[in-house]
Amino acid sequence: MPVSNFTQDELDEIYAFAVDLGRKAGDMLMERVEQRISGGEQKFEEKDSSVDIVTQTDEDVEVFIRSAIQSKYPEHKFLGEETYAKGQSRDYLITEQPTWCIDPLDGTVNYTHIFPMFCVSIGFIVQHRPIIGVIYAPFQDQLFSACPGRGAWLNEKRQLPLIRNPIPPMPANAPSQCIFSCEWGKDRRDIPDGNMHRKIESFMNMAAELGSRDGKGGMVHGMRSLGSATLDLAYTAMGSFDIWWEGGCWEWDVAAGIAILLEAGGLVTTANPPENPDTAPIQDLSLGSRLYLAVRPAGPSETETGRESQERTVREVWRRVRHLSYNRPGA
Amino acid sequence: MPVSNFTQDELDEIYAFAVDLGRKAGDMLMERVEQRISGGEQKFEEKDSSVDIVTQTDEDVEVFIRSAIQSKYPEHKFLGEETYAKGQSRDYLITEQPTWCIDPLDGTVNYTHIFPMFCVSIGFIVQHRPIIGVIYAPFQDQLFSACPGRGAWLNEKRQLPLIRNPIPPMPANAPSQCIFSCEWGKDRRDIPDGNMHRKIESFMNMAAELGSRDGKGGMVHGMRSLGSATLDLAYTAMGSFDIWWEGGCWEWDVAAGIAILLEAGGLVTTANPPENPDTAPIQDLSLGSRLYLAVRPAGPSETETGRESQERTVREVWRRVRHLSYNRPGA
Fold first, then answer.
1. A74 in a domain, yes or no?
2. Could you tell me how far CA A304 lies from the centroid of its own chain?
3. Domain span at residue A118?
4. Residues of A whose CB is below 8 A from B208
5. Are residues A190 and A273 in the same domain?
6. Which of B148, B166, B168, B310 is most buried, taking the most CB atoms under 10 A from its CB?
């Protein structure tokens, strides 16, 4: 286990520190919202496209989090979304070393519009595996957190997944009866067979009535798009979303959410279907891949283990989705 | 004005009654969630498709609301989502009379999965115009409400829209920079040029980069799907969503949300573009139409009134969306 270098006491201390940090950072996000509500609009600086607005808040909160971590754990590496953006490098910089990977503000578009689905995301990674995660969405005061040996929690009082007496298996006819979480993302280029078209084709397969679209129609129970990869993962850990499929986000968007989902009992693998989706091994998460497929925690049924029902669901999704192409710069 | 039959005191009394009723009904929804979390899963009765599950809760909450209204205001008409469903009639039953139009549980799919975007929706309609609305989403304790002469509110303490010093105009290049709220809905039939395909084509036009798709690319800031028409309208009233476009929902899904959006200063018209979207008059809301296009509250810019910027946005949406076909049974 990658956590073997740390004692439970050490993990607990890091966890408590991260929870405290998440709350304080979220409060900073909310303070700025209150300023905007009471005092009028502030100006936003546009980044590379109209879908990617970075605010001064984003940078300030990252500085706050980085300072706190570097002061408390100078021996740990630190990577933040703003650090990456400023350095003009989007290489995968995570190593075997214990690393904090944070997004000071996930759901930036939601934040600028004051749609409550924005949050701070703090992940702690050991040997490429996110093990501690804290996500705080301050507008609705929802704190998601997890630590090895301690479980995953909403507001430190409801254990995740919410329904756990018992944890339901994945539906026998998944993806039917599943809530499918997906995002349109920022790549809106209208290129034939480009990422946007491949995404939409995949969405339509998941949505369409059973048996339609050459047998690919999945008739999912609902299609949801929140505009925050971090919160998509949090709601998957909660059991609210059954499946999340996404390409194009970065490790700082998913590190904390993956830690929480894995601790809750979820599964994460690649969004891109292998050549034979029915039999190919279900690869473990590749954190730098920018391609993620997540399935909620699942318990056993009379005929399957929870893991078997999750893997069956992964294969059913793979049968319905297209390959996406999100290289890293220079990769 | 349709409210002229009521004094402000009468409206205030109805409003206070509706807020209290909304909170109590929402608490009932949440009690059942707590039972499911602590005591395991309950069984759900399936309605006409896997996307439409009705729970016992739904019926119980409607009975509670109906009894309270009929006891307090026996002279008012009452129409509830479950009343319609049970009667096998989905005719438009609203008349000139003061009518309560309620949905005991909007976002049923979210509710069954315990995704927090579910709510109770209580609308009070006079002469076909929703004038008082209460929406309560108990999981995140968000109460949206409005009454003529009293404004629109979140949790009775934040006036809507949230940013109002001043209220921003619609963006000069709308729908760019707008959050576009839309739902996949329940009609997933894979019919060429059917509603699902027309919706997706419209979604793609709104999402795609500017100038693409024969000039229809709208490059909206974000695409959001929550699975609750009621909350889509509430977040539009809040100013979080700029545009909501939907076909297929019913008057009980939208009555309360429209009352709140209109009181906040929003605009509601038809989803279906007229023959000449550039010059056709912007028709007033038709409550029974099952076709809705809503634009958030907007203030003046240096060159336009708020209403002008809303109407400009309506026309830009109409240029990009397809006609939808949702008849009423028998119509």
1. yes
2. 27
3. 2-160
4. 188-190, 196
5. yes
6. B310
